[in-house]
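Q: Hi! First time asking for a complex rather than a single chain. Here are the components, and I think there are two in total. Is that enough to go on?
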Amino acid sequence: MDVETSRNLAESDFDRRLVQRLMRYVGNPHISIRLWNGDEFQVTEAPPVACMHIRERRAIFEMLRTSSVGFGECYSKGLIDVDGDFLAFINETTRAYTRKRARSYYGPKTRSLLYALRPNTPVRSRHNVHHHYDLGNDFYRLWLDERMVYTCAYYDTPEATLAEAQVAKLEHVCRKLKLLPGQTVIEAGCGWGALALHMAEHHDVNVIAYNNSTEQVAYAREQALAKGVDDRVSFVLDDYRSIDQRCDAFVSVGMLEHVGLANFSTLGAIVKRCLKPDGLGLIHSITRSHSDKTDPWIVKHIFPGGHIPSLREMMAVFEPQRFSILDVENLRLHYARTCATWLQNFEAAADTVRDMYSEEFVRMWRLYLGGSSAGFQSGTLQLHQVLFAPYGNNDVPLTREYQYSDSKGT
Amino acid sequence: MDVETSRNLAESDFDRRLVQRLMRYVGNPHISIRLWNGDEFQVTEAPPVACMHIRERRAIFEMLRTSSVGFGECYSKGLIDVDGDFLAFINETTRAYTRKRARSYYGPKTRSLLYALRPNTPVRSRHNVHHHYDLGNDFYRLWLDERMVYTCAYYDTPEATLAEAQVAKLEHVCRKLKLLPGQTVIEAGCGWGALALHMAEHHDVNVIAYNNSTEQVAYAREQALAKGVDDRVSFVLDDYRSIDQRCDAFVSVGMLEHVGLANFSTLGAIVKRCLKPDGLGLIHSITRSHSDKTDPWIVKHIFPGGHIPSLREMMAVFEPQRFSILDVENLRLHYARTCATWLQNFEAAADTVRDMYSEEFVRMWRLYLGGSSAGFQSGTLQLHQVLFAPYGNNDVPLTREYQYSDSKGT
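A: Yes, that's all I need. Here is the structure of the assembled complex.
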């Protein structure tokens, strides 16, 4: 064996041990590893669900430095590849990583609190929203359902398609709120307007819907005109902090994740101010089974300013205002399926996305959609719908049967 | 006007102003006041719902010193009487008092935390339980339903009687837990055993039920023999901290109120240890719309060691163990009705209770039952059923339709 070969072998052995150390850190997922030099090995003895192909040596050091951002950026740039089923790979690594960390509680809780020190001002919120939601309606149209609903669907039957499950979700929210014709509903963070339009069309209510995203509001206004409900729905291009009307129902689907812990009590005070004493409110948000900071790669590349609360943290919206929590439902597995379907649609349109943006963008979004699905599948991420009423409102449904029977309940 | 009359008038004017000050403190309820000297006046201009008859002057000073304990003790001793509808009186004063205090949040929250500094040790828990639950089964039989269920009923139809609503509650809990024949259920704090017996009889499961109360366990064991389910139900006279079996379902109905904030994470760890990874758990507890210490009169005379958490505080049971909250339901108005019915039954048996104990005992319990109903009616008190699963359990129902349809769900 000449000196060159011997040095290569020693180096390879060192690299392998570095990777094994990294894998221990992420909880030894059942995957295999292929290095740039062709060296291939399994992390555990269990059959690997897929292979992580590390194409360049520096990817190891990036991941050792910061596991989440390191992996995310290296995967996006193509320094790392996944051979085999991408979703299976990301599910398995997420499962292993979260199981490894299942015992830590106070550390993550403290990190979550520290997050609150950088509150989202209205200007920063606008910037954050612009970063994600103003990527272009053409982009989102490629993989969302026809109504452009970019939140967790509700598969009320296992056979439901994504489009059907999104309509079921809109209707599930409306039922919970017990909307009556002629009522006024305020929506905070309305996306492309699907819920606002559905409420106006099918429940004959007046909707005032707030959103910070220029592109989304433009689209939503067009839709209102096209559906002939523009007399009943007004889309306001503004921050939730500007809400100053009174309403019978307050609803917010998928906005709380962008509000930030430090502003939860502000949001609560705004809801308190606008919701009539006999009204009902619903906040639908991604949550965590325990407090933690949001994944650093997600914050850096996907959702700047985002923070996913635990249910306990979410109570900071309600308790200072003494709202009564009527009903909390967890739709975690629905969101795992929703994200998996989005990823499927996204993959089918990957060539178009590559032409619109870049290969790096495609890989980044693949990781984001797959990672989200894996988060919900593993249980790290959850989706809670919280129905609430102002303190002392006794005009609330006695049972929840009305949400499931065909009658509108009493 | 002679000197005596003039001094009497001046004194009476002073007393009236003291009472008015007290009434401002409790939020000016729509009641009238009658003093020991016959002086009578309304607190507000609205028609009074009932009259508070202050029979002795010292009652005013007792209430000025400590409003809750002062009123409670003076009412119990007969220094204060209520002329008119007692429940209407207590509802109105509770409504006024809580509305007056609706804006304070951090003060009560801190007081609630300070409460946690005196944890309930097993010995203290046994003493606390003995104080309330060992008053004698004969006493509770006078006003509870035939199954001796001493927790919130579930009026699934408005016409339901108390007995029917208690059975509906037992069944509602069983449905949520999706019990299957042959499974093992652990119950923490089983009262007189109604739920444990119902589960064994109607769902064919094995139940291990813990309770610290000698009288209750003796009664429950008799019932198990009488119903022929003693092979499937074992009642253990011990603290929840002694639970060491494994189970498919964990359930606790109305015990958390006695656990005390400081022991919430201990309870969570015990549940985590005993519940199988694919199991489900349910904790049913009185909660508050916001954190606060428990009423001092209640702690002194009715429930020593008791602490009613807010939903946020209750999360201290679940989040350190990363339990996934599947479903939270608020049965507040059901409990207002349950307590009102208990009060009715209690009044019908008041003579018997007086013979068993004393007039003071009758008045104390009238205030406790009426005050509880008023707490739920006003919204200060709530009743939350929290259904949860161990972290990563994906074998959970996708929708909650199974709780309301006749099928047992999928």
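A: The longest strand of chain A covers residues 275-288. Let me know if you'd like any chain examined more closely.
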